[in-house]
Design goal:
single chain, 8 strands, 29% strand, globular
Amino acid sequence: MKVYNISFFSTIAFLYLIFPALSYAAGPQVNTSSFGDCKCPKLPTVTDAFNQSQIVFLGQVVTVEQASAIRPNYNVVKLIMTKPYKGADLLPPTDYVVVFTPDKEKDCGVSFSKQSDYLVFASGNPAFLKTSLCNLTEIQESRKAEQMKLDELVKDKK
């Protein structure tokens, strides 16, 4: 009987040949961010998200309406703006800001909860402001560091 001396590295290389998916898991990672089934190409920095968004604000969720025939694939979220950072002057003079987010997690929709506070980065026509997990919109408690950076950015712009 012949005994083979196989090194650890040879074994790993052999496994990568047989199971190529392993090489993706252990190899160099593409710069992406994941939230469950949502795959963002690359999360922007706070500065980039601020510059790329037309409206940036802290707001409290008043209502969340599920996707409808009028806006299929988008949930409609009504918020009270508690602290504007950018673009408040672009909005019509109302008590609420309405944003649209994809209705499915795989499409990176934000799961807004009533009465919760969110840091919102939104873009688009003021009548159809869109947001998602990929542009840093998230519940306020998760974005304290981003809020501090936004305070600096707004102060620097004055």
